Amino acid sequence: MTSQHWETNGWLRPHKTSHREIANLLRMVERDLKDSEGNISADWRFGIAYNAALRLCTILLYAQGYRPSHGAHHFRAIQAMPLILGSIRTPNSRTL
Q1: Which domain holds residue 41?
Q2: pLDDT averaged over every residue in the chain
């Protein structure tokens, strides 16, 4: 399946990003990763790290000219990684 198929199915929408938008997302990732190292519960640490990973997936989608649809946007952003990263990186991007 291609990103065009995902768009046709309504799972992705076109998105024009900017350097500023990507930089802002990267700053949030850095902040989240730093915050997840704090003296907090493992559950909360996981939640913060998950948000950082989700933002990294979003950055890759934005760089490809897409954003996840409103419905199930977390799921779509993560599930699109094999599509975005390509067949060589698919083993590194598989989800359960």
Answers
A1: 3-93
A2: 86
Q: Write the CB contacts of 40 (distance below 8 Å, at least 6 apart in sequence).
A: 48
Residue 89, classed as helix, strand or coil, is: coil
Domains held by the chain: number: 1
The SS3 assignment for 62 reads: helix
Residue 96 pLDDT > 50, yes or no?
Answer: no
The radius of gyration computed from the CA coordinates of the chain, to the nearest angstrom, equals 14
Q: Tokens 């933002």 belong to which residue? A: 55
What six digits make up the tokens of 67? 């954003």
Asked whether 22 and 63 are in contact (CB, 8 A), the reply is yes
Band (pLDDT 50/70/90 cuts) for residue 89 is low
Please report where in the chains the tokens 């989800």 appear, as a residue: 95
Q: Which two tokens stand for residue 29?
A: 């990732």
SS (H, E, C) 25-52: HHHHHHHHHHHHCCCCCHHHHHHHHHHH
Question: What average pLDDT does this structure show over 83-94?
Answer: 68
